[in-house]
Amino acid sequence: MKEYRPQEIEKKWQEVWEEKKVFYTPQRSEKPKYYALVMFPYPSGTLHVGHVKNYVIGDIVARYKRMRGYNVLHPFGYDAFGLPAENAAIEKGIHPEEWTRKNINTIRGQVKKLGISYDWSREIATCDEEYYKWTQWIFLQLYKNGLAYKKKAAVNWCPKCKTVLANEQVKDGKCERCGTSVTIRHLEQWFFKITDYAERLLNDLDKLTGWPEHVKTMQRNWIGKSTGAEIDFPVEGSDTKIRVFTTRPDTLWGVTFMALAPESPLVEELVLEEKKEDLQEFLERVKQQDRFRRTSVEAEKEGFFLGRYAINPVTGERIPIYVANYILMEYGTGAIMGVPAHDQRDFSFAKKYGIPIKVVIKPADRDLDPEKMEEAYEGEGIMVNSGPFDGTPSSEGIEKVINWLEEKGIGKRSVQYKLRDWLISRQRYWGAPIPIIYCEKCGVVPVPEEDLPVRLPKDVEFLPTGQSPLSFHEGFKRTKCPICGGEAQRETDTMDTFVDSSWYFLRYVNPHLEDKPFEPDDVNYWLPVDQYIGGVEHAVLHLLYSRFVTKVLHDLGYLNFDEPFTNLFTQGMIYKDGAKMSKSKGNVVSPDEMIEKYGADTLRMYILFMAPPEKDAEWSDAGIEGVHRFVKRLWNTFYTVLPFVKEENTENLVLKNSTEKELRRKLHSIIKKITEDIEGGFKFNTAISGLMELVNHLSQYLNSVPQEEWNRKLLREIVEKLTLALSPFAPHLAEEFWHDLGNENLVVQQSWPSYDPKALQVEEVEIAIQINGKVRDKVVVPVDISEEDLKKIVLERERVKEYVDGKPIKKFLYVRGRIVNIVV
Ligand code: ANZ
Ligand code: ZN
Predict the structure, then answer these.
(1) Does residue 323's CB lie within 6 angstroms of at least one atom of ligand 1?
(2) At which positions is motif 'KMSKS' region (predicted)?
């Protein structure tokens, strides 16, 4: 028997696929289209088995859909700009481009060894000029439509990476990349106006029925829509009014102080002259605090009394005005009404500064004594001490108070979003230059589209200094104004890499088109992406930005769809020794090593078999060994059968006995089950169990039936269908089997195996029932019924009961498939 040498057959079939261009996707076809997309990697090193899981899942989908008759687009590329490349390059003293290209080559090689069915003619890298030219073009479209703008803003600054970060890139006050605590800087920066799309980004989540609920929830929370009211508080002895945003207008009668954000211009305006010096000291201290922790409930509340008072517009009460560290300038109006009894942060603040606490919402089951309260009561209840609203349930009160405020002209209904505009400027080198020119005469001038790309020069000193490396490159910086021809300067910031990845799924459609980013007819044909597969860590960032850019291009008339990804699947992570794989922990499982040892087919099957693909799973060496044993058993079984079926076909298949009928029934029911496991939502682990089961039934048959009685036509049918069903999971093995079965064509070009509903029917037999030597009854049962089950059925029958007549059963004998003998 031929020996199983995975490395040999895998290499061989990969070459055949490549040579015959079997995964080349025609732009149009009479077949229906299917776009299967995996999140492309950062080429920041080599792949580990966690990445492999992503690509293998994508490959199963792509291969399965091809077998189902679809014209499948399954592309691959690299998210090649960005900080990791630059930081690594600095560390290693080589150019980011060199480092990036080297990693791309390594990754490409790794992926090819896995036998993933990508159309390599569509490979893209976002650092290619032919790609980033169009990233710049997208910037210009946003700019021309008022959706890209520059402003001085308090921005997140990572002191280690020496660049600004988008809010989305700050996790718990730390840089998402390096974990350093983020500080605040005031800089002129470019933003994309994603807030204009907040409402649509929120509402359209409801359309995305093919997305996991938890991802949609994360996006909803990030967009953070709050409804409430804006209310004006007059300042005593001044014409100024302080406008606050509140989601709890029902607590308006309980306001005992006001607080302004440290950055609010009202602070300087309102502070008493004699307090100015102390104020400055306070402001300098708190403005440095990180904005994310500053507003958390636990953080230490700090305030400064401005010496002035406001008037509660509904009670006429005089209330002190503070500036407080937990108020953000960027949210609502940058000012709040403080209600210590019903807001925990206000409660802590009031306790610290001796501000009165006034209860205005009473819980149904008890009274609140402000003296004894240890925390705020934030729940619902009945409004008390609230003038005309006493006795109103607070849940209704919110609406009623808003209407009342509007009537009186004190306030108005208001909607706020947590979502901020997307900060896209980066003071780093390795990114797409922002295509803007500054001219003293003409101001801010966009680079004309025909002048794109604005090339990223290679000879740049890119050590981070806090200033854009491009600003030190005179040749890059100095240019002519496209309008007046005078001396001008280029923008020297580069774009956030999330801009690059916000549209790459469009570029795969026309990856090398020279005069356009994509052909509208082609993207409208191929998109939206039918199945997107990736990690849940992108639930907010990449997936939100991609939805935004798609909507903008839709509104500008380039796309006829406004959501890019119809179905989203988020795969679980692979852990090793209980931890996320990382180089620093030294627990990385390298796919190359596993392929070397077991072959790609085993690795693919193991990754899918270890757990349902959406679940996190722990890598186990014993686990992959087990799958490898199965693969070898499969191989041996196949080549045991092969000589008997090689010259056979399945025409006029006759089943001689119940064993054969039962074996065929199992074949067809397992094919049905595998089909349903794949269709019904990525149950690849149980699909593989199905294949294992089938191999077990087959070897049982081979072991229990003498060789000369083997039903060759049936065996042919089994190995054919098994090979076909195996092919998405272990494509090389399946190709080898298919070839050895005498086929000229390739298994990847075959249809998915069908099952015969008739074959699913359980074979039944009629059994005679003898009682004390005489046939008294007959019963129809499945052929493979166990004696135990049969006994239950027989003894429950009316006629049998009649003859047994309550007497003890002395003997119960079952002659399989024929007769039952009962002696009483
Ligand atoms: C009075 C009040 C009473 C509030 C009460 C809450 C409970 P969300 O749901 O997150 O939108 N707030 C408003 N602007 C703020 C700012 N710029 N910085 C910090 N906090 C701000 O929260 C809205 C609530 O957060 C608002 O409602 C306001 O406090 C506070 F029993 O007003 B509330
Ligand atoms: Zn000019």
Answers:
(1) no
(2) 580-584
